[in-house]
Design goal:
alpha/beta, single chain, 29% helix, 9 strands, nine-stranded mixed beta sheet
């Protein structure tokens, strides 16, 4: 082991989008992916949502890989297939199904429930590690548990669907570079952001400009910007629609 000076290198984005059903996670992911590539053929979607990715085929000719089952090993194999096909951005829609699969697997194991997690955790860890080590940028969607709250609209209390905790292992958001929460009005806020692009921003609609800003951040290197100063979200990403 030896100490070295810090150096900013080009990075691969690991982005998560969380939201309730109907919030627009798939559509938003595709817009970000296109903004990062500028070429739909360089975008691949790993689809666990009953071919829902095909609903947006009018946007462009992105590639789709439909999963036959939701085992973590199947997801891992799918990531490899997308990489071999030359995908620059892989959208995994969604990783919640993988966690549901593992919970069912655990529930059907015989013996001590606590001890049986030793048969589950390594599989989950291998899946997350495969995301983190992918040669492509990876965007994951996560389904949020749903609830209803009463909102005042024009003097009337109207029930409104909201997303709560994401369906995945606790603290999985620690593994991602940024996590965007998508509300039912299709607008995003951030619950985690290592990029500084979105922290402190008001809610905003996701457009391809968001992907362009993310790619610029990913490609930022120390030789190109030797004196990078702390940025506010507002002057760092002027093109993101608020």
């Amino acid at each position: 082991m030896q100490l070295r000076q810090s150096m900013r290198r080009a990075a691969k984005m690991r982005l998560a989008l969380a939201g309730a059903s109907g919030s627009g996670k798939t559509y938003s992911s595709l817009l970000i992916a296109y903004g990062m590539t500028g070429d739909w053929s360089r975008v691949a979607v790993i689809d666990s949502e009953n071919c829902s990715a095909d609903l947006y085929a009018h946007l462009g000719g992105y590639q789709v890989l439909t999963l036959e089952n939701y085992a973590p090993e199947t997801y891992i194999e799918a990531i490899g297939i997308c990489e071999q096909a030359g995908a620059e951005v892989i959208v995994i829609d969604s990783i919640s199904h993988c966690w549901d699969y593992l919970l069912d697997f655990h529930a059907n194991l015989q013996g001590n429930s606590f001890a049986n997690w030793a048969k589950v955790t390594p599989r989950q860890n291998a899946f997350i590690q495969r995301i983190l080590t992918s040669s492509a940028h990876v965007i994951c969607t996560m389904r949020s548990k749903q609830d209803y709250v009463l909102s005042d609209k024009n003097g009337k209390m109207v029930p409104e669907k909201v997303g709560l905790k994401a369906v995945q292992r606790d603290n999985v958001d620690y593994e991602f570079t940024a996590v965007l929460d998508i509300a039912m009005n299709h607008k995003a806020t951030t619950s985690k952001d290592r990029t500084g692009l979105f922290t402190g921003r008001p809610e905003f609609l996701i457009t391809p400009a968001v992907g362009q800003a993310i790619l610029k951040w990913c490609n930022m290197t120390q030789p190109a910007q030797p004196n990078v100063q702390p940025q506010t979200p507002y002057n760092h990403v002027p093109s993101v629609s608020a």
